[in-house]
Amino acid sequence: MKIIFLDIDGVLNSVNSFKYQHRRNIQDYDEPFPHYVKILNLILRKTDAEIVLSSTWRIHGLDYMNKLFEQCGIIKQIFSMTPRLHIKRGLEIQRWLDDHKDLEIESFVIIDDDSDMEHLMDHLVKTDNKTGLTKKYIQPILERLNR
């Protein structure tokens, strides 16, 4: 099994997407931006990875987030979410990995615009919160998932 630990703010939306949607008076301009969704879907098709939500958006719950993903056109439902421990994100991801040792995880990648990944930095593909998930990140993500 391949896992994508997915952040939303700065990955599936960005400063640029906020500005774009705000200028057009689009409601919910903080939600996933269609261009970034297309890139995520491409990665999901090429890897068949499962999504584990590590974003603070997980406070909304799995059902809400899966409905949002479906409405935005994301081709996979969220497999799971990391625990909310109010510690660095890398440690929350590590806890999830520890709690799911029964899964045969062959590889994982963390897609995030933050760097608080502690000892998991080698798994991080760090996006720019101004531009979000662009094509330049596809290859590094695929390399980490196809190790």
What can you tell me about this protein's structure?
With 147 residues, the protein is of the alpha/beta class. The protein has a single domain (2-145), classed as HAD superfamily/HAD-like (Rossmann fold, 3-Layer(aba) Sandwich), CATH 3.40.50. It contains 5 helices and 5 strands. It has helices spanning 15-23, 34-47, 62-72, 89-99, 138-145, and strands spanning 2-6, 50-53, 78-81, 107-112, 124-126. The protein has a 5-stranded parallel β-sheet with strand order 3-2-1-4-5. β2, α3 and β3 (78-81) form a beta-alpha-beta unit. The longest helix is centred in the first third of the chain and has 14 residues, at 34-47. It starts with a strand and ends with a helix. The mean pLDDT is 91.
Q: Keyphrases for this structure?
A:
147 residues, Rossmann fold, 36% helix, globular
Helices and strands in order:
Blueprint: E1 2-6, H1 15-23, H2 34-47, E2 50-53, H3 62-72, E3 78-81, H4 89-99, E4 107-112, E5 124-126, H5 138-145
Parallel strand pairs: 1-2, 1-4, 2-3, 4-5
Structural class based on helices, strands and sheet pairing = alpha/beta
> Mean pLDDT, rounded to whole units?
91
Name of the level-1 CATH class: Alpha Beta
- Give the total of beta strands: 5
Order of helices and strands: EHHEHEHEEH
The CATH homologous superfamily name equals HAD superfamily/HAD-like
Rg over CA atoms, rounded to whole Å, is 14 Å
CATH architectural name: 3-Layer(aba) Sandwich
Count of DSSP-assigned helices = 5
Cα distance spanning the termini: 12 Å
